């Protein structure tokens, strides 16, 4: 709902905190919860970690509105469900939050799009049941990540707080009065709850073939082979590196969007 946005954003920013660049966080340099990748996409294509550190709050808010709230049609979702989906999308990507929303209302999850069909299905469900189901699934997913031992304490607290406040909203609590009955988060729970690409394997699939190709090309060149042969060999190693990079990103996305056990679709009223 439109009336929820300001309060939802305020609470999300409290959870995300300020600038971080934790080596275990797949998001990399991040400020206000906005990763360097999103900052490059929406604000500055060649942004550095220093640019992310200097990010203005209004820039972060504009990205949140466009990429996460509007993209998931949160204005059209019931109070409580909107905040739950919004926070999940920021933490784990709208590709996952959108699919989970579709799964929980019994629709195919081949896309993450929040369509008119999704909105109609949501309208036929109890908002409190949707809030509970989505947040419980979110916690199970986060616990399945290998980064849970590092960030799990904060993530668990964050999910619990999002769930509790979303249930308040779903009970039609007046948003303007919500902080009095539901205090703001006082401790940040940063880091992106996504399936990380294994760094060791990533290096093997990209850096190693490229380096090997360069070394082989140099050997051929020094041995007097014609330039076309040298170029063909070097290009072959680069192609292998590219295929490896694509393959591991495909593997990561499959795991990121895969259903977690235990989610039961909510029946329509």
Label this structure with key terms.
Chitosanase, subunit A, domain 1; two-stranded antiparallel sheet; 1% strand; 13 helices; mainly alpha; 2 domains; 269 residues
How are the elements arranged and paired?
Blueprint: H1 5-16, E1 30-31, E2 34-35, H2 36-42, H3 49-53, H4 57-70, H5 81-92, H6 94-104, H7 116-123, H8 127-144, H9 148-170, H10 178-181, H11 199-205, H12 207-222, H13 227-257
Antiparallel strand pairs: 1-2
Helix pairs in contact: 5-6, 5-8, 5-9, 8-9, 12-13
* C-alpha end-to-end distance: 21 Å
What CATH calls the topology of the largest domain is Chitosanase, subunit A, domain 1
- Give a quick account of the main beta sheet: strands, pairing sense, barrel closure: 2 strands, antiparallel
How many separate domains?
Answer: 2
- How much helicity do the residues have? 55-70%
Spatial sequence of strands, sheet with the most strands: 1-2
Annotated CATH homologous superfamily of the largest domain: Chitosanase, subunit A, domain 1
What does the radius of gyration come to? 22 Å
The CATH architecture term of the largest domain is Up-down Bundle
Mean pLDDT reading:
86
Report the order of strands and helices.
Answer: HEEHHHHHHHHHHHH
Shape: globular
CATH class of the largest domain: Mainly Alpha
Question: Which class do the helix and strand fractions yield?
Answer: mainly alpha
How many DSSP helices? 13
Number of strands: 2
Q: Kindly estimate the percentage of residues that lie in beta strands according to DSSP.
A: under 5%
pLDDT < 50 stretches: 201-205
